[in-house]
Amino acid sequence: MKKYIYLLISNISLFIVFPLIRLISKSFYEKKILPYVLNLTCNSRPIDYQRKKVIPEASGKVLEIGIGPGSNLKHYDNQKVTSILGIDPSEELNQIAQKRAKKNNLNVEFLIESASSLSVESDSIDTVVSTYALCSIPEPQKTLHEIKRVLKDDGVFIFSEHGLSPNKRVSFIQNITDFFYPKIAGGCHTNRNIEQLISDSGFQFLDLNNIYLPGTQKFLGYNYWGKAKISS
Ligand SMILES: C[S@@+](CC[C@H](N)C(=O)[O-])C[C@H]1O[C@@H](n2cnc3c(N)ncnc32)[C@H](O)[C@@H]1O
Fold first, then answer.
1. Residue 17 belongs to what H/E stretch?
2. pLDDT digits over 14-66, tens only?
3. What are the pocket residues of ligand 1 if the criterion is a CB atom closer than 6 Å to any ligand atom?
4. For residue 31, what are the contacts with CB-CB under 8 A and spacing of at least 6?
5. CATH number of the domain located at residue range(s) 2-230 in this protein
6. Nearest CA owner, ligand 1 atom 19
7. Count of other CB atoms within 10 angstroms of residue 118
8. HSE (CB half, 13 Å, CA atoms) of 126?
């Protein structure tokens, strides 16, 4: 019962309330509503469960792209990580992330910039992390090339992302919703083929898993997670 009430509320919000508010005032919606909605959804239980599967694997000098509200910060293993650099173009989400870093007593350096053009030195990072960010970054291929550039030769790319489902019915809905969903969800595309994007960018998977996130609408919930290294 609880699940159906949640789905009903999220559908009413997604398909009626948010588009209406955005129609009335795009800047109010993007500055005052969206950051809090993203913070809320990014901290849902199924997503947090996915974070726990990948984030403790990060080690050494870590770069997190699209760090947003900093929801991964509490999952880093302080014994393995020497430094964290979080980048994201959103000032509003960065304010939330800064509070989280303080709360977790972490020394995180933040840069307000796009992951598709990083000001990070080449061949300098041990682990690049991306969670639920490749869906929203306007130029995912360029970003993956930047990730490859900044990673050390033996560096690892850790990810947990949602994207294109292999199921024809679900992918049909994803292709339809993609016409409007990015407008109300900070540029989040529902139909990116994460596996293909990563492998076409010169990475080799060390580990790749898929699941529909429980309690999440299928068009949003097809999750890819794992690890990749630069192809030899
Ligand atoms: C759905 S949120 C996910 C945030 C965070 N990675 C998490 O796991 O909770 C998508 C994030 O991608 C960020 N983003 C959008 N365009 C970007 C870009 N060009 N470069 C880096 N991050 C970007 C957004 O600001 C937002 O923080």
1. none
2. 888 888 998 899 899 888 898 888 888 888 899 999 999 999 999 999 999 99
3. 38, 42, 65-68, 71-72, 88-90, 93, 114-116, 131-133, 136-138, 186-188
4. 92
5. 3.40.50.150
6. 114
7. 21
8. 11
Which pLDDT tens digit goes with each residue over 64-74?
999 999 999 99
**Residues facing residue 63 across a β-bridge:** 85, 128
Strands, E assignment, 15-111: 60-65, 81-87, 108-111
For residue 80, what are the CA distances in angstroms to 60, 77, 154, 185? 6, 6, 16, 34
Instruction: Look up residue 180 and give its two tokens.
Output: 């409007």
Rg (CA), the chain: 17
d(CA 94, CA 86): 9
Report whether 194 contacts 166 (CB < 8 A). no
- Contact by Cβ (8 Å): 151, 128: yes
Measured in residues, the chain has a length of: 232
Q: Which residues face 210 on adjacent strands?
A: 224
For residue 131, how far is its CA from the centre of ligand 1 (angstroms)? 8
Cut 0.85: pTM above it: yes
Per-domain residue ranges of the chain: 2-230
